[in-house]
Sequence to fold (295 residues):
Amino acid sequence: MFRRKNQSHSEQDGEDKQHKVKELRASLGQLSGRSAQYCTDACLKRYLEARNWNVDKSKKMLEETLKWRSSFKPEEIRWHEVATEGETGKVYKANFHDRYGRTVLILRPGMQNTSALDNQMKHLVYLIENAIFNLPEGQEQMAWLIDFTGWSITNNVPVKSARETINILQNHYPERLAVAFLYCPPRIFEAFWKIVKYFMDPKTAQKVKFVYPKNKDSVELMKSYFDMDNLATEFGGTATLSYDHEEFSRQMAQDDVKAAKFWGLDKHAPGVNGYSAAEVAPEPESIALPATARA
Fold:
């Protein structure tokens, strides 16, 4: 009897949420072009979830994102435009997924190599889009691993940069971040964190986990998300953290071709990052739609 009640409640909740999705879609009016392509049911659900299923608040949030995407044009960014930012491997997509099949981004703030905020944000947005594009079928979120090796107060990420990163992530990529592990940050980082946390909404802040090698609970939590054989020693694992900029650039060039094809931009991008389209063209087998496009 209780099981039936629970099932009934679950089904009702699902129906209510589906109704909210339809209500939000109707409130947006007729969409066209990339906005229509972006606003799948899965996308609308993420914005509703981010605003506790309040249709009006979700609509406002989504419309602000569509305005931002129209101006920033994240789907048009190509690796060759941001490759300089990535030379040190300060942010890159890992060659493994977490235990839930999520794409993993590795961030190494101690490897910062530039000072132009606009270019840094363009680089980060490119990699967020790429991480989403490479999510397995049925997976909507990514994981972040932040390595503090080499980090110090002298090469600290400016508050303005951290604030803009948070703004982009939580306002324009809601419910995309599953978890962010900050591995062994130095004590001086705690003061910086108190400032940065002020700009986060509670939902985002709860996804940030601090891990210290001597704190067994935090280490066990991290192990529940990752196979330690995949993790580098910098994260307490057994693998070697190595970033090959040339190889990573080739991978991104290949992904650029696929992304351009998906967004209908392939006719305008015959070559990427020094490679011809023929060199980096994907195999003829079917390509899974990126999570931004899945209903």
Observations:
- The longest helix spans residues 2-28.
